[in-house]
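<given_protein>
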Amino acid sequence: MRTEDVLAAIATGLWRWDNASGTVTLDGEAARLLGLPAEPAVLPEAAARARFHPVDWNEINGIVNLAVAEGTLAEARLRVMDEDGRVLRTVRSRSRPLENRTAEGRVDYELVGTIQEIAEPQPGTTAAHTPITGDWRRSREAFLLDAGRALAEARSTAEVLRVAASLSMPGFSPDGLAVFGLEGERLSVIGHHGHSPGDEGPFSHMALDTDYPAAEVVRTGRAIYLPTPEEYKRRFPVTWPLARGFGRASWAFLPLIVAGRTIGAWMAAFRHPVTFSPDERSVLTTVARMLAQALQRAGVAESERQLTTGLQRSMMPQLGPEIPGMTIAARYVPTGGGLQVGGDWYDVIPLPSGRFALVIGDVQGHDVRAAGLMGQLRIAVRAYASEGHRPDAVLSRASRFLAGLCSAPPVPDDESCDADADADADFGSPRFATCLYVECDPGTGTLEIARAGHPDPVVRMADGTVLMRPTAGGLPLGIVPDTDYPTTRFALEPGETLMLCTDGLIETGGHDLDTGWARLRAVLEAGDTGSGEGGNHLERLADLLVQAVHGPSSHHTTGPLADRREDDIAVVLLCRESAECGCGTAGAHPVRPVRRTLLTVAQAEPARIAGVRRQIRELLHDWADTEQVDSAVLMVSEMVTNVLVHTDGDALLVAEAAGEPGARRLRVEVADSSDELPHKRHPGEMASSGRGVLLMEMLADAWGVDPRGEGKSIWFELNEQAKPDGDEDRETPRSSA
């Protein structure tokens, strides 16, 4: 009896699907099962597809691709439809893909197999349902979507392994997992689940030529399914004793392939028997592909993190040995770009004179070039400072250095090099950098500051009051090579803290300079950091500043700008220690320290009078009577202006506020080099000057003029009033002029 007759007797047909020609060849029985006349036929692929349910046809495509990849049989359950879309019968197809190389050398496949009708269980019967149902498909699709989403969100190898261990596959969840990687010519166990610690020992550093399923999967790139212990023992007798002790019933080993390269293997082990049907193999294969992609992404991300962390640590200095009488804390937070290192930097430089220098800066941009320029500029500034140059000379040399680095290279004339030329021109385009350089004498607390377009330093006084100290400055580094940078000198008193920061700390979160400074000032004044030991108080203050602009709470304090701008953050804190350190709250001091500010206004800088007014307001920000604050600002403005107008020298201002809140006394002195004393005048209504002494007599509680060896000092005092006096007459001012 012929084979065709035997197959026809058991209602089994033969079919051949030629993928290259796009035709399907059927024998008589196969044609009958598809609802066609019972005679041999050759159909176009589209005509054959029309005989099957669309969902089932999509399923068979995936099953065939899986069989091609694994070299196994393709089994599928298909519903045959008539012309009206009704289901005629259900058939099962079993076929094997055969490689077929075309005349052009292209590799294609041809499927040769059988079709056999299967009986559907009738409603109300106890016939076992096939697992390949619509509900199973829907649950499988939902599982794959969830698994893909979870694996895509994993950012590290440990997270990927945790996700893989938590996967609950529809109907056949494994209870033991292992992921193998490659280390040269050996396997390594990246992670495992469902085993005891140390169980991975015999499988670690296993040679690839070992008779072990994972090793063979890595060598061949094909999956291995072992549905029974007998099958495992038959195929891998050498390593079967290692697997026998785990008490599993079925195993699946699948390759982890990325971009055509096998990077490892994934093992799923089951305590219950699994037949590994085509649908189950399809699920396992899909999960293996997603797992391989997730592991690849996590590996790249971890490598980038290690690279950028190492780069950041090499570029960011250690704070060095302890400085007697001083405490330093610093933070760097890269937030502006994909790289974890940007153009912001800080440095602490020991100087030959026994002093030390604090440097903070920000190179324009948030790209690789900004980070590279930052590293070169930091080294240059450290070199110039170590040679013993003064702050202004250090910044002048650094500006010439940066301008030389950023000179654009010539663009070649060859049109074929236009793209490379544009890239080179962009890489060599001019860049600038802001910088603040502070030279500090730890013995006296004297600070000499040179500033190149950078935000001014901030001083937190011993009682918690925070002032932004205006300092003379010049253009950012690299704009004009030969630029002069004037220096500003003042003293950091015991218990005071100096803060240097880049604009990222101020403007991050959609803030401008004004609103960002108001936010930082509130944090500095309200933060209860305590006195602590070993500089811990300053470390906590640094953490509070960063969390205020880069932590969860920062999203509740967004600024007035429409976009939430992000930038790299660098901040350095310098505290001059005292018995009662000023890094705590104001109420922590039994004896309230004196608030003091000192400023110099040069003849050539009349615009700094506005900074003087702002300093007085900040010094008296918690004064009880706001009208007294306005009076103090008016008198100070008048005194400094008179010095600039009526003398040839500079004005030196010293302001002090002492006492307990509600009963404080403000004393302001403005000194100049002229011996001419102020005169009381009687200006007319239209006069534009001559009212200085009249204002002092009207507004000050006391005022006077003290001659000095060279020049004089004009001063006034205001006594804080706990409550405004309303319309009551003020006491007659006392003058010692």
Observations:
- The two ends are 137 Å apart (CA to CA).
- The CA atoms of residues 90 and 119 lie 7 Å apart.
- Residues 278-315 form the longest helix (38 residues).
- Confidence is low (pLDDT under 50) at residues 122-133, 529-534, 582-590, 726-737.
